[in-house]
Amino acid sequence: MDVLWSPWRYDYIAGGARISGCVFCDILNGSASDEEKFILTRAEFNFAVLNIYPYTSGHLMIVPYEHLASLSAASKQVTDEMTDLVKRAEAAITTAYSPDGINLGMNLGKAAGAGVDGHIHMHLLPRWVGDVNFMTAVGQTRTLPEALPDTYNKLKELI
């Protein structure tokens, strides 16, 4: 039997029950550097951060500083800037990865699939034709060709 080793996933699995509060607020309030937290850029109302449990290399999120549970609760300034950062992130992902497409989405509430319920955020994921293979469909395992620090270094100067 082949064994795939992905120790980084254990932190996610084991830490799920210990997480209290909001992971995005914790990122903002922590003492680690932006590089250690994988924050790619900070704007006035939002920041861009790598997803530390990505579906694919280059998976990032645009997150408002303000803890908001719904998009309708966000001010026009927040949503306008969020859209501007999404555009910048799209260009950065395209430059760094040359994907065949990009998934862009926001899940509002647990029933909609929100992994972080209560703090809105926009996902951007580069996609390639044929990138959903048997590993994900049958083995419920994702393969990532690069480490998060490498992804961070690719996108940091582009976004």
What would you note in describing this structure?
The chain is an alpha+beta fold and 159 residues long. The chain has a single domain (7-156), classed as 2-Layer Sandwich (HIT family, subunit A), CATH 3.30.428.10. The chain is built from six helices and five strands, in the order αααβββαββαα. It has helices spanning 7-15, 23-29, 34-37, 76-97, 134-137, 148-156; strands at 39-42, 46-50, 60-64, 101-105, 122-127. A five-stranded antiparallel β-sheet has the order 1-2-3-5-4. Strand 1 and strand 2 (46-50) form a beta hairpin. The longest helix is centred in the middle third of the chain and has 22 residues, at 76-97. The relative contact order is 0.18. The model has no long low-confidence stretch (mean pLDDT 84).
Second CATH tier, the architecture: 2-Layer Sandwich
Helix fraction, binned, reads 25-40%
One letter per element, helices H and strands E, the order comes to HHHEEEHEEHH
**Biggest β-sheet description:** 5 strands, antiparallel
| CATH topology name | HIT family, subunit A
Query: For the record, what is the CATH homologous superfamily label?
Result: HIT-like
Structural class: alpha+beta
Please, what is the average pLDDT?
Answer: 84
Alpha carbon gyration radius:
16 Å
Number of folding domains? 1
